[in-house]
Structures
1.
Amino acid sequence: MSSIKVCVASSGAGGLEDSVSMQFGRCPMFTVITIENGSVVDVRTVPNPGSSASGGAGIQAAQAVVNEGCSVVIAGAFGPNAEQVLRAGGVEMLSAQGSIENAVKSYLEGSLSPPVSGRGGRKGRGFGRHM
Amino acid sequence: MKITVTGGKGGTGKSTIATNLAVLLSAKYRTVLVDADVECPNDYILLSTKLENEENVYLFKPKFDYEKCTRCGLCVENCGENALVMFKNGYPFLMPTLCSGCRTCQLVCPEEDAILDDRRLVGKTYHTRISDNLHLVTGMLREGEERSYPTVLAARRRAMSIDADLHLFDTMPGTGNHVAAAIEDSKVVIAVTEPTRLGVHDLEMILKLLKKLKLHAWVIVNRYDMGSADYREIVKKYSAEIIAEIPMSEDVMKSYVSGVPVVKYNPNGEVASILKDIASRIEEVL
């Protein structure tokens, strides 16, 4: 039985009804979805410690995702710092918009693609300034 | 003695005024001009000289000895910049671009020598001897580097180690710590502005900073005939003093293009004579 944890950056309180946050690092909540044999078996919410960080939000957020044991993370976009940490933690990054439920469906269908990398073209900016 | 030329807004003529004053004052005094505008230092261009005697500016960064690290996580917890990352089953590692070099990680680490000294290059300083009496010290930030403060400090240290009658600092625009580091301990601070809404707005910011630092400000209104924004009220509000109003001038433009300070380009021109008056005011406090 194969089990995988998918983290979705959520724009509100989290959960399948919530929508995918455009911003990974500063989203308020993570929805952590456990998938076994192709179906959702558990949905939990975890506050994003990066949402209130003065700087290095993406780093804190990414660290939390790795520590949750997630191997996939879905968000609208990822900052350069978050990207570095997630890559170091071996987490697959995927880009999606709209409802979390649809994003998870698309993920299970294998139709999500990785985010466009190098957004803003600069590393270490953080503060969401890369948008 | 230390004098600083600053002003808040960029492009008001700080470097033009600083280089001209340095040329004038170096006729009598051993002068060190310090180009602390480390993001784009160009006093050396205005003086048609070269950057010489390069020295590197380094900033501390932690280097982990994973044999000694117990993975207690204190360094990660206490990093004010969130520059350290530690995964559940891993060891702490550094995101170098975020590190401010504060050494907190090293200080809080309970293990001996688990966090060692490493360093990264953040900028350069230069020392150009233009003449016996006029030296130029330049700070230059490394491309892409976000933290200008350490390079300003390094330029300041290098400049202050040169024995001279006068250290004349030319700062970056703005009012951040990179500007404050250049201004600190100045006997006289000259704020160069222009009569535009932007100029007046940024003048107020720098006058606020000077008030905090308890420093008296002399204001030079450059190109005072280019706009009509009211700078007098702000100057009055902060008990500063307007010491000169410089008109727009073809001399200045031509001298700028030719790379010869205007006091040399046209020593008898209107702007040169205003600059000479400013220099004599500085002499009075020297």
Note: Strands of chain A lie at 3-10, 29-36, 39-47, 72-75, 92-95.
2.
Amino acid sequence: MTDTTQGERATQPNMGAYLLGHLREYGLLFALIAIMLFFQVVTDGTLLRPVNITNLFLQNSYIIIMALGMLIVIVGGHIDLSVGSVMGFVGALAAVMIVNLDVPVAITIPVCLVVGGLIGAAQGYWVTYWNIPSFIVTLAGMLVFRGLSLWLLEGQSVGPFPREFQLLSTGFIPDVFGVGRPNVTALAVGVIAACAIVYLGMRKRARNMAYGIEDEPISFFVVRNAIVAGALLFVIYKLSTFRGLPNVLVTMGLLTIVYAFLTEQTTIGRRVYALGGNVKAAKLSGIPTERLTFLTFVNMGVLAALAGLIFAARLNTATPKAGFAVELDVIAAVFIGGASMSGGVGKIVGAVIGAFIMGVMNNGMSIMGIGIDYQQVIKGLVLLAAVIFDVYNKQKQR
Amino acid sequence: MTTLLEMRDITKTFPGVKALDNVNLKVTAGEIHALVGENGAGKSTLMKVLSGVYPQGTYDGDIHYDGQVARFGGIADSEALGIIIIHQELALVPLLSIAENLFVGNECASKGVMNWPETFRRTEALLKKVGLKEAPATPVDRLGVGKQQLVEIAKALSKDVRLLILDEPTAALSESDSQALLDLLLELKAEGVTSIIISHKLNEVRRVADTITVIRDGATVSTLDARTESITEDRIVRDMVGRDMSQRYPERERRAGDMLMEVQGWNVWHPEHATRQMIKDINFHVRAGEVVGIAGLMGAGRTELAMSLFGRSYGQNISGTVKLKGQVVDTSTVAAAIRSGLAYVTEDRKELGLVLEDTIQRNITLANLSDVSRSGVINEAEETKVAERYRKAMNIRTPSVFQRVMNLSGGNQQKVVLSKWLFAGPEVLILDEPTRGIDVGAKFEIYGIINELSAQGKGVVMISSEMPELLGMSDRIYVMNEGGFVGELDASEASQERIMSFIVTD
């Protein structure tokens, strides 16, 4: 236990320095909270109403799901511009299969995910084995799949979907305790999740202390965890007073956990970071760089397909315009979340928070009645500011 | 005869290294002056000082040019006085035409609009002067290296060159191209152009040079006048390598054990030019506990040999066998080579060896993640333990293993690379210039690690351009030149003179 006290004593005097060194990680979280509080005030409390919170998740789920894949592609040193079109194409495919061809939903969903994977594989093939820049390949893919969705839908909107398909997006987890409102299942999940976050944080902290690594001052640790757990419980409570946990939120939450684990705790994740950081060094360390890059694109394709299904289910129709320019929101979310254009840097949690920042801004500005013209300008400036902040921080550290 | 250039007491220090120590160089107008010395002796640094790459103020000493003290703030200043340097790596834009390359940055234009007829007319005149029979519109990448070299010289002539500096101009040229180039130098000399030529090829130096300055360890050793006395290659070699062995190498009990690795009939062709053979029928072996040196000049093919052995990371149409402990092993991919028991510590640690943005810990485990993970999930506690173990064993100076590698000094970075490969558990380590750019103290530590490996019965192949290091560390030395092994020496019979004589007589 003497280690622990020594560690604390060593870190306490440089709290300012610690904050400066980790400004980016804290900054992102606080930026999200500040933006939410701002809109909460200017929208007279509309932003955090249960129904609006539910809507926020439903509206942004497909962006967040694609941001998970995009983060990995960008960490690997590439980019995928085709995700919006792929998402629209898969939505169209699902509509044609279910509505026009009467294929059962249980068959359509896996088929669509496989198609997404194949699209990713086709693009990844050219990027990886022919060394064609991913920007070009996926720009081509963006045009091709935009065209193919128009062709599939013959320029029309196709819908509506059967109810079982809509549940993918608009369904809620039933309250197993039968209380209804507040939804006790949701509350229970929230409490368990909050406890898990605090427990994992403490475990990591204990481990870092044991190795005598520079760790955050205890006060920071407490405040940060209190804010995160508090915010989580607050959101879940609000949801529970409405209709409980949306299915998409659960999908999204589970995927976020899985991908955070994959990128931070597994050898595959580690290798993707290494190849994004220095592909030559990774290759000379025996890492199959080509195969991994290829897989990042396959993964992106599957997630884009899932996003397409969720989006179509939410609108209850597939339109030729679905997914238009969505790739830009996804990419912006990843960069706001702290990923580096040159690869090797970025975190899943960052990308998710980045997506929420974009989502809350969209939502808040719409509630305020700000025109789409100004909304675009503001979003653009926020993206630029986030990246400038990154570059500035990096220069200062040198 | 007037003195065109005099460099007096030039001293240039890099952090931790004194690259030039009171060097003096005097060049007479209208002569060809050869600058010779081993790799790393300071020739290129001296020429960078002269051409303004290292501007006035970053070194001590004076440059007198044409009777005046010269102060260069950059290359433009030296070029304005007619000092043009042609680097070993040619600085041409491959996709642009000869004409465009000749006048890049110096275009025949009025108010920013190109004057193409004038450009082509002047290009033709310059090409005629250097004896290059190519159309001015030919893209440079269609020319061979020899012709590209001529384009560089034509470019220098277009700038009214008075002092032409050529860094290893014939290193990449065939015999006939080299002859043509040397003839051109003699022609230019007749027209009054003074040149400084840096070369390892002593026969060429003897053929064209009027004066020879030998540099060793950043200091001028001798200036020989070839016009008044006959100078033998032996004499030059002696001056080049004749340092007393003041550097120390840790003692090691030399004992070669059982046969560990055998390479037989190894042939490699250039990755892009399928007809160019880079490695020519090489055979060699390493015994357990043996440190085997590979000597050679830059461009001899040593790195290419190592990279092709290690997972065919270089070249194409590779043939030959690699045996470890008598068994033929698979080295067709890097992963297979590592599994078979090979490790390769690259020459360029920043470009090829490390993920600079990542921490020490992550770099150390990168080549062997399976030993710190179970079912693909990394055990970070175990990983930290491993990293800590190597930090202590290798004496990596860092506050913690969570430090980013980019913040470490060169010596500590090299220890991280070595740690990575030791953790991969190899039988044979190929070390490519393991002490390049490292200060003396860290060098000694690296030598200690090499000796430790040998004591454990590992085989070490050490590629180095520093001959004292090779002589001090190796049990046996292979001498490599132009893609083939041209000699093998036991430590007891090896000397710098003998190694050099293998190379210069090849």
Note: Residues 1-13 of chain A have pLDDT under 50 and may be disordered.
